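Retro notes, structure queue

What went well: the backlog is down to a handful. What didn't: a couple of records were mislabeled last round, so from now on we paste the full input next to the output in the thread. Example, using Os05g0527300 protein from Oryza sativa subsp. japonica:
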Amino acid sequence: MASSSKTAAGNPLGGNAISEKLSKSNHALWKAQVMAAVRGARLEGHLTGATKTPNALITTTAGDKGEKEVTVRNPEFDDWVATDQQVLGFLLSTLARDVLAQVATCGTAAAAWQMLEEMYSSVTRARFINTRIALSNTKKGTLSINEYVSKMKALADEMTAAGKIVDDDDLISYIIAGLDDTYEPVISTIVGKDTMTLGEAYSQLLSFEQRLALRHGGDSSVNLANRGRGGGGGQQRGGNTGNGGRGRGGNNNGANRGRGRGNNGGARPPGGVDNRPKCQLCYKRGHTVINCWYRYDEDFVPDEKYAGSATSYGIDTNWYVDTSATDHVTGELDKLTVRDRYKGQDQVHTASGAGSGHEETSV
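Corresponding output:
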């Protein structure tokens, strides 16, 4: 009894400060702090109901010889009530105003605790499910790496607040799942590591993003065009590769005959010589090895169809006289993109001796 009176005399929870007041979005964090403080004071039973309420009255004997029984108030009950009210007061002090109004009528710490658990346990589960879906579906899109990783980390923190801790491996998996094909080389590097912290993965992604930014700001416009990104790039169909635009026209001074968007030197005429640089690593055209997407990917293996063609293409170094001819003839119609059928009566003989003047012959 002396021990109970001593406990009731002072507030064992008076020195505990809770940084998170309970609201609709932080039940798990709030609960963790409250339970730590209450357990530290060895008063958890007052929250869970494990510490039973003593009887308010007890029967004792009175008189010199103890021949008379009397009913008196139980001092242990008074001590229990004092301690329980201290726990209840501490609990109420950790609630936001709108939450406090819902439990203000509870008379014991256990009653208030049970009501709060019933109110927020289902909300916490729904929040956990929604946050996990958001982690799975969030994509980088146009966000920077810093913005994207910060957003994913915030979602992981919400999962932790809902009572489900997301470790670094899981969060890294969510992050790389939301990246596009541009980041495939660095993704391969990250996945290939046995262990990697979130900080290390973030550092590699940020470094790769910076290399991309430097490349795109320099001589990487052709590489971008090959990947189908950016404006004004890409291949065109027509006779020239000059300063043309979209539509049809002559083959004069860069007006592009055919379909496609023009680009200064960005297109390759059908059947002509492709003077674009070829990468010695992936064997694709439009960039050199110093700007190759796979330069830092130790596990990269070039596509066989590109590797096989690495030595099969020769550059025509012959010079040809400009005859000023306005019409040209070919025996390989499939080499031409823009063509007209010959309607005349003259006959044309090729080097092999074959020839025809039939009106359906294509020239």
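Agreed that this is the format going forward. Reviewer comment attached to the example: DSSP finds twelve helices and four strands in the chain.
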